[in-house]
């Protein structure tokens, strides 16, 4: 009998037994359950199990924080519970049964952007580095950049744009591929559709405004503008879903013996036509409207108020999963304004929540069990992943969460008030400064300092207030 046997038996009992488990899997630190009846889970009893560091529910999944031992614990639990191995993707699909319509829509949006985020992060860092060597005059008494004085750096500058262009200008290809992947349709058709939106044959999206004449395809009875949709998000999303649903429908109506020939043919050609005739122009207008509203709001006389609200509300959005919607807005801002004013506030919110956890590490420095969760959570938060910090520490006590969103609001006001702009989405924590446009890096560093210091101080203060005392009593802990 291993050391995990008794805790596994106890957890199985407290979640309602094997019959109440639809799906169970695990990630780096947590067990993820999809329960048939979530109300059967005895949360208080589960959190009192020695191996358990906390619990929370998100995106239809009941999650139990175990820590670095989760893989070994999961194996023992699976044997005792008699549940089969399940992938995280399968667990997510099952979990959607417990979501409302809005949560499902956001989940679908997250499924589109999650696979392409690594490329976006790399692209943001590349653009930041190109700005550093090409736009900052640091040579010859501040009169020339590295690119101006060195053929090597000029070569590096030019070469890196090959990657930057592939990521951002050809972003519709990644989006249509991600949609076909998510929908279980033919992924290469999604790629082909995306390429038709950014083909060199088309007038580049960045050249439309200054074009004297827009080329077109002439069908005699109708003409279609030959406009590309480089870096455009909404047109790619609309076109991708049309292709996916068309293919799914065609699979049902076309006999299987000829489906390999006719399904791709009758799915792709209409999807491309509709994308260029209808969805592209409509999506462009929608995307421009959204980005203009956000940009105008944040740069208006009341921009500080919008910033404060966003900085205060972003972490609560993470709890609900609605924060995934900001990816599309960020990318649209980048295509319209060559940068995003929104993403820096997201990075600052992550830093603020991490700083609140650091304060809790300081306050509860004698609680070795909690530090098994809090220390990795703080590191994760500073690197852009906030869920372990939010659900493992800050929301359990509440007052660190409040301190974090207050600090985030102040940092957001500083960021927007000083006009900080990011090249793109980047690493959503302290390393995020590398994605900030070079002239704004010092201003962002000041906002980062606020996001570090203010939540730490507020957390320590709140711990000694009535709110803090009640939190410690509720959790059965000794107040520092």
TrEMBL record:
<feature type="domain" description="PTS EIIC type-1">
    <location>
        <begin position="107"/>
        <end position="478"/>
    </location>
</feature>
<dbReference type="GO" id="GO:0008982">
    <property type="term" value="F:protein-N(PI)-phosphohistidine-sugar phosphotransferase activity"/>
</dbReference>
<dbReference type="InterPro" id="IPR011296">
    <property type="entry name" value="PTS_IIBC_treh"/>
</dbReference>
<keyword id="KW-0762">Sugar transport</keyword>
<keyword id="KW-0472">Membrane</keyword>
<dbReference type="InterPro" id="IPR050558">
    <property type="entry name" value="PTS_Sugar-Specific_Components"/>
</dbReference>
<keyword id="KW-1133">Transmembrane helix</keyword>
<keyword id="KW-0598">Phosphotransferase system</keyword>
<dbReference type="InterPro" id="IPR018113">
    <property type="entry name" value="PTrfase_EIIB_Cys"/>
</dbReference>
<feature type="transmembrane region" description="Helical">
    <location>
        <begin position="159"/>
        <end position="179"/>
    </location>
</feature>
<keyword id="KW-0808">Transferase</keyword>
<feature type="domain" description="PTS EIIB type-1">
    <location>
        <begin position="5"/>
        <end position="87"/>
    </location>
</feature>
<feature type="transmembrane region" description="Helical">
    <location>
        <begin position="342"/>
        <end position="363"/>
    </location>
</feature>
<feature type="transmembrane region" description="Helical">
    <location>
        <begin position="302"/>
        <end position="322"/>
    </location>
</feature>
<dbReference type="GO" id="GO:0005886">
    <property type="term" value="C:plasma membrane"/>
</dbReference>
<keyword id="KW-0813">Transport</keyword>
<dbReference type="InterPro" id="IPR013013">
    <property type="entry name" value="PTS_EIIC_1"/>
</dbReference>
<dbReference type="GO" id="GO:0016301">
    <property type="term" value="F:kinase activity"/>
</dbReference>
<feature type="transmembrane region" description="Helical">
    <location>
        <begin position="229"/>
        <end position="250"/>
    </location>
</feature>
<dbReference type="GO" id="GO:0015574">
    <property type="term" value="F:trehalose transmembrane transporter activity"/>
</dbReference>
<dbReference type="InterPro" id="IPR036878">
    <property type="entry name" value="Glu_permease_IIB"/>
</dbReference>
<keyword id="KW-0418">Kinase</keyword>
<dbReference type="Pfam" id="PF00367">
    <property type="entry name" value="PTS_EIIB"/>
</dbReference>
<keyword id="KW-1003">Cell membrane</keyword>
<dbReference type="InterPro" id="IPR003352">
    <property type="entry name" value="PTS_EIIC"/>
</dbReference>
<keyword id="KW-0812">Transmembrane</keyword>
<feature type="transmembrane region" description="Helical">
    <location>
        <begin position="257"/>
        <end position="282"/>
    </location>
</feature>
<feature type="transmembrane region" description="Helical">
    <location>
        <begin position="442"/>
        <end position="463"/>
    </location>
</feature>
<dbReference type="InterPro" id="IPR001996">
    <property type="entry name" value="PTS_IIB_1"/>
</dbReference>
<dbReference type="GO" id="GO:0090589">
    <property type="term" value="F:protein-phosphocysteine-trehalose phosphotransferase system transporter activity"/>
</dbReference>
<feature type="transmembrane region" description="Helical">
    <location>
        <begin position="401"/>
        <end position="422"/>
    </location>
</feature>
<feature type="active site" description="Phosphocysteine intermediate; for EIIB activity">
    <location>
        <position position="27"/>
    </location>
</feature>
<feature type="transmembrane region" description="Helical">
    <location>
        <begin position="375"/>
        <end position="394"/>
    </location>
</feature>
<dbReference type="Pfam" id="PF02378">
    <property type="entry name" value="PTS_EIIC"/>
</dbReference>
<dbReference type="GO" id="GO:0009401">
    <property type="term" value="P:phosphoenolpyruvate-dependent sugar phosphotransferase system"/>
</dbReference>
<feature type="transmembrane region" description="Helical">
    <location>
        <begin position="109"/>
        <end position="129"/>
    </location>
</feature>
<feature type="transmembrane region" description="Helical">
    <location>
        <begin position="188"/>
        <end position="209"/>
    </location>
</feature>
<protein>
    <submittedName>
        <fullName>PTS system trehalose-specific IIC component</fullName>
    </submittedName>
</protein>
